Amino acid sequence: MKKMCILLGLTFIITGFALQSLAQTPFAPWAKLSCDAPKEISGRKYPVPTKNEVGIPPYPGAVISSVSAPSTDTIKYKQEVLPSVNLVTSDPPSNVIAFYKKTLTKDKGWNYSEEYRTFVKGETQGALTGFVPTVAIRDENGENYDLVYVDPNVKKKLKTRIVITYKPPKPIN
Questions:
Q1: C-beta of residue 122 within 8 angstroms of C-beta of residue 111
Q2: Which of 23, 81, 85, 172 could staple 130 via S-S, CB 3.0–4.6 A?
Q3: Contact at 8 Å (CB) between 66 and 147?
């Protein structure tokens, strides 16, 4: 009985560490910088969200090109604009769309707009506002502003940009 209690206790401890580790796992790695990139890049100072914070899986092998903090639209809507993370990949958009069609399904509350190549949590009319979670798939040619300091060998292979707007979980008080 004593051995069983010790084994059960160890199982809980290991499981706790594994769950905490997953919650703190960065969403994805940053895109590789060129050798002549400055040591400090202001766009990389904002912390990378964790997989738990984003709640939407990153496309396998995609890397971060930029992240943005939540903000408040005080002019028109006076509500919070959700944070976002931009990923880039050398895979074609069709592969990325197929991945997210398997992952972001209707039974999980997601809708897909073929016209805008965007997955929306909830109704699609709110898709372009920044107020609802979305995953937008765009063509990428390596010339976007957030790729200025990225390694040229990486940039020339890029084909797809994935813009994930997410609603972080509320902190537990």
A1: yes
A2: 81
A3: no
The DSSP H or E segment spanning 161 is strand 160-165
Instruction: Report CA Rg, the chain.
Output: 19
67 bridge partner residues: 85
Residues 6+ apart with CB under 8 A from 97: 117, 137
Closest of 73, 89, 92 to residue 81, by C-alpha: 73
Q: Residues 133-156: pLDDT tens digits? A: 999 999 999 999 999 999 999 999
What is 122-151 written as a DSSP string? Answer: S-GGGTTSSSS-EEEEEE--S-SGGGTTB-
What is the pTM for the complete model shown? 0.81
**3-class DSSP state of 77:** coil
* CA dihedral sign, ordered 113, 119, 121, 125: negative
* SS3 assignment, position 59: coil
